[in-house]
Amino acid sequence: MTNRLCMPWEDKPAGCDSVVWRYSKNPVIPDNQIKCSNSIFNSAVVPYEDGFAGVFRCDSKSRQLRLHSGFSKDAINWTIEEEPINFITDLEEYKSSRSRYDPRVVWIEDRYYVTWCQDYHGPTIAVAYTYNFKEFYQIEHAFLPYNRNGVLFPKKINGRYAMLSRPSDKGQTPFGDIFYSESPDMNFWGNHRFVMGATRGWQKTKIGAGAVPIETKDGWLVFYHGVLTSCNGFTYSMGAALLDIEKPWKVLYRTDNYILTPQTYYERVGDVPNVVFPCAALHDKSSGKIAIYYGAADTVVALAFTLEDELLSYIKSNSVV
Ligand code: BMA
User: Fold this and answer.
1) For the chain, which has fewer Cβ within 10 Å, the N-terminal or C-terminal residue?
2) Is the Cβ atom of 295 under 6 angstroms away from ligand 1?
3) Predicted pLDDT at 2
4) pLDDT of the residue at 96
């Protein structure tokens, strides 16, 4: 990220005692922003040229799960392409996939990489790269089915690309822990390591990495989702963890409390109620400002803010690893 990132921001409201606070004009992207969309949620944004670009999960009115690219000057008002991304690939068996969803986007070295969940005999982690958010080149899937929530680190670690992911099943997955994998070439993935598992309370059923990790003085900062099962189904909340810089499969700290949970109307009511699902974060190094993009109730995209120093001390003093 640049030192002068002109990112969305609102100061913490007076009287707010939580470490993460919501944008007052949420949601930033409504369900019907483009003609074909039933819902737009779980989407990823990054700084691009003199503004921002992103990859958006747009479920269509025929309920196909698709990815669309988009651009913005201020990361709040977005122009999203009406047509889904047509991924360029020689891999015939990947072209016909019926479902693409939950993208993450990251700049590594010389290009933007997109990871997402794609149906290939069940969900697995697909990978593509782009230079301009117009042409996207899809390469080999990172893992065998079934897997979700593939999130790349923004740089090589110990000389290798690094990714978090969450092995899953074909359905709604009543379990799930986060693992770490490495690749020398973004093609072959191995050296798999357990990072952290589902524990208790809001993160008792399963967890999954959310935004691309942010490098801080205290470790890799990871926003992740945690799921609780109630008699009414799943509730998705957000937590944060700090992972060791050199060995990111070592968890240094992890919030015992959620840092965001469904409490507003747009988080509690929608196609899937009670979901906050982080997929991206903008970070301004010089000011420590962080803007977190999350899907709300599988229907809209919302935005929340935090400050790096305040969040790091919160994580360290409210941690159960
Ligand atoms: C997960 C994924 C997400 C979704 C969440 C809540 O399994 O499918 O896309 O936001 O469930 O429905």
Assistant:
1) C
2) yes
3) 44
4) 83
